[in-house]
């Protein structure tokens, strides 16, 4: 990929991902970024190594013979594992059909295990459109797969990760000349800001 990735998950997010404490929904979106971003792949490897070392200190007696070698072995091969994962990170997930939810905007559901309040979906937005002005009640994590959008914090192209919490007031515009396809993990719900937005909110079912 020639596109330079400039927006990454926070260190806190990468550490939570590496320790396995993230829910399946947000983990999926982080794993897609990780599979595209060498820097974050390396950071996750480091966090996993630190986590393994801490585990070793915490339970020196109860660890089974060979467990450390097994752990180190998995650390040693995780870079390769990331590449394998990067080929088809969505393979284990069922994708729903594309549905038109707004002029120039399509959405498809992505199934994830568990029953958290976090939904995962893909968005495909036409060049030049501005997404409905919105705020959210929880985190909204986005990884761009194709095309690009921009908002007040910069331009987001393939591989870029947008980690927005409930304080962010969003109005992204598609700035690529091809459709922008993203995968999104959304916690809680979206609050559209305009009068028209509130009218179409039930249609979007976000
Ligand atoms: Zn990254």
From TrEMBL:
<dbReference type="InterPro" id="IPR012807">
    <property type="entry name" value="Anti-sigma_ChrR"/>
</dbReference>
<feature type="domain" description="ChrR-like cupin">
    <location>
        <begin position="97"/>
        <end position="186"/>
    </location>
</feature>
<protein>
    <submittedName>
        <fullName>Anti-sigma factor</fullName>
    </submittedName>
</protein>
<dbReference type="InterPro" id="IPR011051">
    <property type="entry name" value="RmlC_Cupin_sf"/>
</dbReference>
<dbReference type="InterPro" id="IPR014710">
    <property type="entry name" value="RmlC-like_jellyroll"/>
</dbReference>
<dbReference type="InterPro" id="IPR041916">
    <property type="entry name" value="Anti_sigma_zinc_sf"/>
</dbReference>
<dbReference type="InterPro" id="IPR025979">
    <property type="entry name" value="ChrR-like_cupin_dom"/>
</dbReference>
<dbReference type="Pfam" id="PF12973">
    <property type="entry name" value="Cupin_7"/>
</dbReference>
């Amino acid at each position: 990929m020639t596109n330079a990735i400039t927006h990454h998950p926070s260190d806190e997010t990468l550490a939570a991902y590496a320790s396995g404490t993230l829910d399946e929904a947000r983990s999926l979106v982080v794993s897609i970024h990780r599979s595209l971003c060498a820097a974050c792949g390396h950071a996750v490897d480091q966090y996993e190594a630190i986590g393994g070392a801490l585990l070793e200190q915490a339970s020196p007696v109860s660890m089974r013979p060979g467990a450390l070698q097994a752990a180190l072995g998995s650390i040693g091969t995780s870079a390769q594992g990331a590449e394998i994962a990067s080929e088809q990170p969505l393979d284990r997930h069922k994708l729903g059909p594309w549905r038109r939810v707004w002029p120039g905007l399509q959405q498809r559901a992505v199934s994830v295990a568990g029953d958290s309040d976090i939904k995962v979906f893909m968005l495909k937005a036409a060049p030049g459109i501005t997404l409905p002005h919105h705020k959210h009640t929880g985190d909204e994590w986005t990884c761009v797969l194709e095309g690009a959008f921009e908002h007040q914090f910069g331009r987001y192209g393939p591989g870029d990760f947008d980690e927005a919490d409930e304080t962010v007031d969003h109005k992204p515009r598609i700035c690529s000349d091809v459709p922008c396809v993203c995968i999104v993990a959304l916690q809680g719900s979206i609050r559209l800001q305009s009068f028209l937005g509130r009218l179409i909110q039930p249609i979007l079912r976000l």
